[in-house]
Amino acid sequence: MTPGSDFDNLTGDLEFPQTFGLTDSTLMPTFWLGSSGAYSVCHYDTYGVNLVVQVFGQKKWTLFPSSDEPNLYSTRLPLEESTVFSQVNFPNPNLFKYPLVSNTSPHCVLLNPGDVLFVPRGWWHFVQSTELSPVTCSVNLWLDEPEIDNGCRLREALTQFVAFSLLSSTSLDKDELLHSAERELYYSSNCGSQLLKNIKDLAITTQSETVSIFEEKKRKLYDPLWSPLVKCKFEECFSVFSHTQKEHKTSDTKTLDDKAIINAFLKADVMDLIARHLERQFC
């Protein structure tokens, strides 16, 4: 499917601006094509809100509220701008290795053709094509709100700057720990100066607005059309990986390596502390 032909025809049928009252003509949908059983790594997007339209096939979405983050074992490695991954192997979580994950509050929904899913800001999600669907197709749109998202982008730029600085002083495999877009930036000749410029620009433009305009609009205009997601029991959502406690103790020795140290520096609360120091200079 070429961007200039069939894809344009498909996205033209998905009238995001008209349906949701959006005026930004630069909004670009993303096309997702998957096979039976294919799934994404559990993660959340650090900025923007997400609208997903299921075109054909069926997908199961499992979402976790942002308050579940302490129980989802977040990691920034491999590094991908705007994405925080969970270390838990869904759909078969290992409760011996990640015991806190059983304390999460999963919300599950099956998306069928014509369904639209609104993913709240900061919610984790794990997405899997069902076995009933040989092929699945969905189109989504991330909605940017600068009043909120510039602050999130500042924290992402800081994360990149710190990650690149720390990785450059280790022998770790950069190609393994950086996604493709990050590798391109990391190896560029002006990487440091470009990131510092981004940090300065974002620190100046960041505002203190915390209410999502889109979410407020959705509540007022579209609530009658939306069905709320229902919280599920954890054990009903996943096939829990199990083995004996003895096997766990002998096979899972904890170590503190370079990767673990770097990941600690990249935690959201650390980046938030640095960002707040920068933002105060322009208040």
From TrEMBL:
PROSITE patterns: JMJC. Residues 1-158 form the JmjC domain. It is found in: Cytoplasm. Pfam families: Cupin_8 (PF13621). One of its GO terms (cellular component) is cytoplasm. Keywords: Cytoplasm. May play a role in cellular stress response. This is Dachshund. It comes from Fasciola hepatica. The lineage of its organism: Eukaryota, Metazoa, Spiralia, Lophotrochozoa, Platyhelminthes.
